[in-house]
Amino acid sequence: MTDLSAFEITRRWPAQHPDRIQLYSLPTPNGVKASIMLEETGIPYEWHLVDFATDDQKSSEFLSLNPNGKIPAMIDPDGPGGEPLPLFESGAILLYLAEKSGKFLPADGAARWQAIQWLMFQMGGVGPMFGQVGFFHKFAGKDYDDKRPRDRYVAEAKRLLGVMDGWLAGRTWFLGEDYSIADISMLGWVRNLIGFYEAGELVGFKDFAHVGAWLDRGLARPAVQRGLNIPPRP
Asked: Could you report the per-residue pLDDT of 114-169, keeping only the tens digit for each?
C-alpha cells in the first residue's frame, strides 16, 4: 500500500485512497482546472476541500505542499520513476496530467506549442485580469470611490475577450477541432466573469459571440460540469 505519511499535508487531510492522486482544492476558477482535467482524463483521484473561510490555505500543513499558499495542489503517489510527486500551480498541474494521461495536449509539433501558448495566455492574462475585475466590481474594491483601477481592468478584460473572440471565429476550440488544456484553463474564468462576478454587462460580454458559443460548448461537457463542483463547497 502506498505510504504518503512523509507529506505533512496528509496529517490534516488524511488519504483514504493513498494509491490515487490527492487533490487539495476549492472550486475557484483556478481550482477547477485540476478537477475538470481529472474528470476529463478519468485518472483516479481523491479530493480534499481547502476551505478559505477557515484559512486552510495558510495552515502549516498546506504550506508544506505549496509554500505559495494557493490552490490547487496535488500529490501523485505514482509520479516519475514511480516516486510520489508533489505539485502546485494550476498550469503545471494541467501540463503534468496531460503528459501522464496522454490526453488534451498534442504529443508533438506545432499544435502542442499552440496549446501551451494559449495556456500561458490564460495564466498571464485572463486569470489575473478577470480576477481583478471581480475584486473591483463585486468585492471590496467596489467601494473605492476612484473607479480608475476598475476601469483599467475592465478595459484589459475586454481586450483579452476580443483576442479570444477573434481566434475562436471559425474554430470549435482553441486548437480548432481538438479540445485541449487551453480550453480547460479558461472555461472556469470566463464562466466566473459573467456568473459569480456578475460582470457580463460591464465587459460587454454579449459582443463576444464566439467566446459565448465556446463557453456553452465547454459547459455542455459532462466532465466539466462535474469538475466545476469538486470539491463541493461547504
From this structure: 999 999 999 999 999 999 999 999 999 999 999 999 999 999 999 999 999 999 99
The number of folded domains in the chain is: 2
Q: Which three cell numbers stand for residue 211?
A: 467566446
User: 139, exposed or middle or buried, with CB in 10 Å at 0-12, 13-18, 19+?
Assistant: exposed
* pLDDT at position 1: 62
Angle at 83 between CA 77 and CA 86, to 5 degrees: 60
DSSP 52: G
Element (H, E) at 76: strand 73-76
My answer on whether 114 and 85 are in the same domain is no
Residue 118 pLDDT: 98
Has residue 170 been placed in a domain?
yes
Do 122 and 220 sit in the same domain of this protein?
yes
Answer yes or no: are the C-beta atoms of 115 and 92 closer than 8 Å. Answer: no
Helix or strand (DSSP H, E) at 142: none
Instruction: With a cut of 90, say whether residue 234 has pLDDT above it.
Output: no
What CATH number is associated with residue 81? 3.40.30.10
